[in-house]
Amino acid sequence: MGTMDELEVSAARIDLAAAFRLAVRMDLHEGVCNHFSLMLPDGRHFLLNRYGLHWSEVSASNLLLLDAHGNVLRGEGEFEKTAFYIHSRIHLANPRASCVLHTHMPYATALTLLENGRLEMVEQNALRFYEDIAYDDTYNGLVVDSAEGDRLARALAGKRALFLANHGVIVVGPSVAEAFDLLYYLERACRLQVLARSTGGTFKSIRQDVVRDTCRMMRADAPKYAAAHFGALKRILDREEPGYSH
Fold it and tell me: Which of 17, 117, 153, 196 could disulfide-pair with 93, CB 3.0 to 4.6 Å?
């Protein structure tokens, strides 16, 4: 890799490490489970968190660099098998999925536990996901081979979010900033719906034309907003947890 490539890789490492630290602050993580990955600009190598680290320990320098065959090209330690089979297969199947985030975040996961659990288009945050969520309604256990990873990649298709029955969620985006912004707002939307469901009341519907128009406006501004949002969150880390970028 040339100098420019190394600079791009360094920036990618810092952004992905920031996403891990921010996920801890927002209670999107679980134990030393779950995984985030980022495909590098060459389209052949990706970054993935090392197995056994709490996300508050993840830093730019301890992320693993892997190829599509699971060879660790840079970094020490091993990766979780399920992480490789989920992330590598989605990266390969969907070139637009540069960043792949998988969590068991509580409110989104709560919806995956319900029969026909769906994020209903009844609240402003949810509208950004209009016709952009895929649902895998079959839980097949742990993802321990390429076949299951490929099945999840097919289920995601061209959507940016995938609900995994009885399991959790996957969000993808063209950058860490956009993927993390989606992850954040997906959990916020699910949180409100779980709270609303708990009242026993009936959802108040939104007109279909309003749903479509609101979603269109949100998506038009999404890259700019996500960059501003993620930039602000990174400034907080720079002040309070500067070690993430080392």
Answer: 153
Beta bridge partners of residue 48, listed in sequence order: 37, 64
pTM for the model stands at 0.96
pLDDT tens track for 218-242: 999 999 999 999 999 999 999 999 9
Does residue 59 sit in helix, strand or coil?
Answer: coil
User: What are the structure tokens assigned to 80, written together?
Assistant: 């979780």
pLDDT digits (tens, 9 = 90+) for 5-41: 889 999 999 999 999 999 999 999 999 999 999 999 9
Residue 220 in tokens? 């038009």
CATH of 3-245, one of 3.40.50.300, 3.30.2350.10, 3.40.225.10, 1.10.1040.10: 3.40.225.10
Rounded CA-CA distance 100/150 in Å is 14
